[in-house]
Structure formats: C-alpha cells, structure tokens
C-alpha cells in the first residue's frame, strides 16, 4: 500500500478544507459567544466506543481534561478537533448521543470522500508546499477549494455540537476546549519568548487549527487506505497464494496505487489485472472470476 510519506504530506494542506465560518464566533472556543439554546436532557451512562474513536485523553469523574503532558512536560497535541475529543468524554443521553454520532460520522464521511476522490490533487498541493513552491501550492489549492466547499460551509464542529448538546454537557465540552486552547497558547508563548520572538496569540491559535485540520486529513487518508487494504487482503486470503505470488501481487497493486494516487484509469486497471492474472494458477484464476461475479 502507499508509503507513509504520502500520509505525512497531508499535514501541510489543511487550508483547502478550513471552515468558511472559522472567523465567526465558535460556541466551543475560548472567549467566544455562548452556545445556542441548549436542549434539556438528563445525562445517562458512560459513552461506548465507536469506529471513529480517537486517542484517549486523561479524565476522571471529578474533572475531565484534554491536557496531558509528556515526560518533558510538553502538552500532547490532539490529532482531532478539541470539541470532538471533548464530546467523546462526556456522558450523554441516548438522543443527544445519537445526534453527536451522526454529526461526527457525516463530517468524517465528507472528509474521506474529499481525500479519496482528490488524492492526486491533495498530494500535489502537499508536495509543492513542502518544496517551498508557494505559488504552485496556492494555484492548486484554489483549484481544489470549490470541491471542498460543502465541508467548509458546514462550519465549525463546536458550533454544530452546541446545537444538539444539553446544557450541562455543552458547558463541560466548552470548558475542556477552553482549557486545552489556553494551555497550548501558553506553551507557544513560552516557546516564542525563549526564542526572543514577539508572540502573536491569534497567529498561534490559527496555526494550531491548521495543524488539527491537517491531522484530520491524515486520519481520513488512513481510513480510506485501511478499508481498501482490508478488502484487498480478504481477496488474497481466498486465493491461496504462495509467499512468492503474494509478494509479487502486492508489489504490482501497490506500485499502481502509488503512481496513480488510487485513481487508476480503466486502461491502467486492466494492465494491473493482466499482470496479476499471469501469476495465478488455473484454480486461483477461477476463484478470482467467482469473486468478480459475486461483487457485481
């Protein structure tokens, strides 16, 4: 499958999907407006895990928090929006939980679709940015931006969550987001002062937001690739390939995926199929044909 270099490149292209509403008041952000009128729903049992769950963060019955520190005392940065990490820690009733899950699943699906259908463009933007070619990166971002409009126009996650969360959980989520944002800002300020630089709090918070969106894009890429890899592995498992055959087949498919960013043309797919076909025995070919008939 694709190299980790493709995954790491995604960290530098989040501008494409930055919410159009990010300059507006975010109910879950520090120093912003209060949430929209909250629903009244009693909190119930602890949350259960789900397929989109992210890394765990420190929490207890007394005080949940997104702020964790490593052995050097530095904050462990989140790889998802603070509002998402926070809402995963609060206890919700079944109705509110279902609404939250729906919001998170819909946004993840939109990001997955964006990355899967535009992988070449996303990687090209990342490559240009990493090479220092800002003009080329900017041009390609402008070309891709209209495709990402539905996700950007959806706005900030915190604002969506505030519209469905009961009052008490909404306040808890807001508190955790504020605490995390303020801690990260303080750490960045301390680092800037240590370098003898003037600290710009607004720029620091924007940089953290960009980093988080980049992390979200990497998660989307990994979800897309993982699903394809699982489907591919299931097929290989049914064929009874020898180690030599499996190694050769994986190389053919991986080389094609990497060269064409997962969007091979029908002609390219036919070429790959032909190369793999030559490696198979008659029995293995029969199984491939059966799989193709079942997949129709």
Describe this structure in a few short sentences.
This protein is mostly helical and 296 residues long. The protein folds into two domains: 4-223, no CATH class; 240-295, no CATH class.
Instruction: Please summarize the sheet with the most strands.
Output: none
Instruction: Quickly count the domains.
Output: 2
Secondary structure: number of strands: 0
The assembly state of the depicted protein chains is single chain
What is the percentage of strand-forming residues?
Answer: under 5%
Give the helix level as a range of percent.
55-70%
Strands, helices and their partners?
Elements: H1 4-9, H2 82-87, H3 94-117, H4 119-130, H5 134-144, H6 149-153, H7 157-162, H8 167-194, H9 201-239, H10 243-260, H11 266-279, H12 282-295
Helix pairs in contact: 3-9, 4-5, 8-9, 10-11
Characterise the protein shown here:
This protein is mainly α and 296 residues long. It folds into two domains: 4-223, no CATH class; 240-295, no CATH class. Helices cover 62% and strands 0% of the residues. It is built from twelve helices and no strands. The protein has helices at residues 4-9, 82-87, 94-117, 119-130, 134-144, 149-153, 157-162, 167-194, 201-239, 243-260, 266-279, 282-295. Helix 3 packs across helix 9. The longest helix has 39 residues, at 201-239. It starts with a helix and ends with a helix. Mean pLDDT is 78; it is low at 1-13, 20-25 and 27-51.
């Amino acid at each position: 499958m694709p190299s980790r270099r493709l995954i790491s490149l995604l960290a530098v292209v989040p501008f494409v999907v930055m919410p159009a509403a990010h300059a507006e008041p975010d109910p879950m952000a520090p120093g912003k407006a209060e949430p929209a009128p909250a629903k009244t729903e009693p909190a119930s049992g602890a949350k259960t895990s789900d397929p989109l769950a992210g890394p765990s963060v420190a929490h207890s019955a007394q005080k949940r928090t997104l702020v964790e520190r490593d052995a050097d005392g530095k904050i462990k940065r989140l790889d998802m929006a603070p509002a998402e990490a926070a809402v995963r820690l609060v206890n919700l009733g079944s109705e509110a939980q279902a609404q939250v899950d729906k919001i998170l699943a819909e946004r993840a699906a939109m990001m997955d679709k964006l990355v899967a259908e535009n992988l070449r463009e996303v990687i090209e933007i990342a490559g240009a940015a990493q090479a220092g070619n800002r003009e080329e990166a900017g041009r390609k971002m402008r070309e891709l931006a209209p495709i990402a409009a539905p996700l950007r126009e959806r706005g900030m996650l915190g604002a969506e969550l505030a519209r469905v969360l009961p009052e008490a959980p909404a306040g808890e989520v807001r508190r955790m987001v504020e605490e995390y944002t303020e801690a990260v800002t303080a750490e960045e300020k301390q680092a800037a002062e240590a370098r003898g630089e003037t600290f710009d709090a607004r720029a620091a918070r924007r940089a953290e937001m960009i980093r988080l969106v980049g992390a979200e894009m990497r998660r989307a890429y990994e979800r897309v690739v993982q699903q394809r890899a699982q489907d591919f592995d299931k097929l290989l498992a049914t064929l009874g390939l020898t180690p030599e055959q499996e190694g050769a087949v994986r190389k053919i498919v991986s080389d094609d995926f990497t060269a064409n960013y997962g969007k091979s043309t029908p002609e390219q797919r036919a070429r790959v199929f032909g190369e793999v076909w030559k490696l198979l025995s008659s029995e293995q070919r029969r199984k491939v044909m059966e799989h193709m008939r079942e997949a129709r």
